[in-house]
Design a protein that fits this description.
- This protein has helices at residues 3-6, 19-24, 36-50, 64-67, 88-100, 102-117, 126-135, 140-148, 151-167, 192-201; strands spanning 26-31, 56-61, 174-177, 180-183.
- With 217 residues, the protein is of the alpha+beta class.
- The chain has a single domain, classed as Glutaredoxin.
- The protein has a four-stranded mixed β-sheet with strand order 2-1-3-4, sandwiched between helices.
- 36% of the residues are buried.
């Protein structure tokens, strides 16, 4: 069964004018399942992939809990299971799937965002995450074992730290391409033209900040 047949939403395609950029330029995008704006951006990238675009994209976990921690706090990835802050457990499960079952990651990725933002599910609850894992055809027991091995925590430490220290990432979603990192907030879902514009603007370094002072919604 094709990916586009299994995704829990309608697949959208990028306009033809975006194809050359998508086919030649790689980029990364950060995520934390807590953030609705990360959901909007990551979902659009997955939709483009599901629509057949040959995007060279990496999905980078970034813990908002860790980013907002005090300097003297124990790092989230050094805590014991049961002590993790909000959203961290979900990131660890996502890493376990991304790195061991990559063919199932995109479906899991969007489904867990849906569980959080559509259903209001508690993604700090292992049983909730396990239900999403089972729904995409994976064995929650095996994923739990991967998480318990500590490897996903080590990966989160490495990828979060690299994003923060090398690129100055402070939140999600951040698009990273080459030496550039850009924090973006999409206000609407499924707007492929918005994604196209951001991908085109990643190399436009003359503009540093463009922020509306108020949003009427």
């Amino acid at each position: 069964m094709a990916l586009s047949d299994r995704l829990p939403f309608t697949v959208y395609r990028l306009p033809a004018s975006a194809y050359p950029l998508c086919m030649t330029d790689s980029f990364s995008i950060t995520y934390d399942y807590l953030c609705p704006f990360a959901r909007n951006a990551n979902e659009m990238v997955v939709e483009a992939l599901g629509g057949g675009e040959d995007l060279d994209v990496s999905f980078v976990p970034f813990s908002l809990k860790e980013a907002h921690a005090d300097e003297d706090d124990v790092a989230q990835w050094d805590l014991q299971p049961g002590e993790f802050g909000t959203g961290v457990l979900a990131l660890l499960w996502s890493i376990a799937i991304r790195d061991n079952y990559p063919d199932s990651f995109l479906e899991f990725h969007v489904s867990l965002f849906n569980a959080r933002h559509d259903d209001g599910s508690d993604i700090n609850d292992e049983s909730v995450i396990g239900a999403v894992v089972a729904a995409v055809g994976l064995d929650p027991v095996k994923i739990r074992e991967r998480v318990a091995s500590g490897v996903p925590a080590q990966t989160l430490a490495a990828e979060h730290s690299r994003a923060s220290e090398d690129y100055g990432v402070f939140g999600v979603p951040t698009f990273i391409q080459g030496d550039e990192a850009v924090f973006v907030r999409f206000m609407e879902r499924h707007e492929m033209r918005d994604l196209e514009r951001v991908l085109e603007m990643l190399k436009w370094t003359n503009l540093n900040e463009f922020k509306r002072t108020r949003i009427d919604r």
